[in-house]
Amino acid sequence: MPTTTIPSNATVLSSLLRADFTTQWRNRKSVILILLIPVIILIAWKGLIDKLGGAFVLSNCITIGLNAIGLMGYSNAIARDRDKGIFQRLRVAPLTAWSIMASRLAVQLAMILLVTSAVFIAGYYVDHISLSPAGYALGFAMAFVGGAVYLGLGQAIVGLIKNAETVNAVTRLVYFVFIMVGMFAELGALDKLGEAVKHILSAGMQPQTWNQHSTTALLVTIGYAVLFSGMGIKWFKWSSK
Predict the structure, then answer these.
(1) I need a labelling partner for 74 at 20 to 30 A (CA). Which of 41, 146, 154, 156 fits?
(2) Mean pLDDT of 91-102
């Protein structure tokens, strides 16, 4: 009598990771676009470095990249795959829900690492912005925390909206609003979420400037990440029908 061998969680997750990273590689044009946007803005803002500081410019550019990853990349990829029935097929396979989403999130964490590294490298070689080793380490750590906010927001949008085309339109609108509000925030408008992310990034790059306000901004950022992620998980449907 034939026996059925159920693969281990590690084997399943490894296979999913290979498949998701392969898919990301095939969509490398969008990856390049996400990388180029913050780097181009960094180069364009070179004149602001002497006035506002290197950490300020780097934190703004990384925040723009994190926006693009969570809103333009992650949410649209999830909506597109759901619309194609990919999640339905994965759900009938011997896979756990957490392994499916963990694989997707691992790809996005790699994107956060890639975008942050690209901004740091461009900042060093093009704009001659140099941070301390602790500044780079904390900068990466804060980028992951900030990225969690926008990934959570993307998850909330794709959980609330089933239609892939509508998700694409809404995320583009939200991305544009975040960029515009972020620009006006420098003129005095209040943007708690964006400002919190930019603040922890900037303070992380300059550990000596970390203060109570920085800790509050970190807690606000984590709070938004938990809120958006919870909403997205609660609302998410594996099928668009």
Answers:
(1) 41
(2) 73
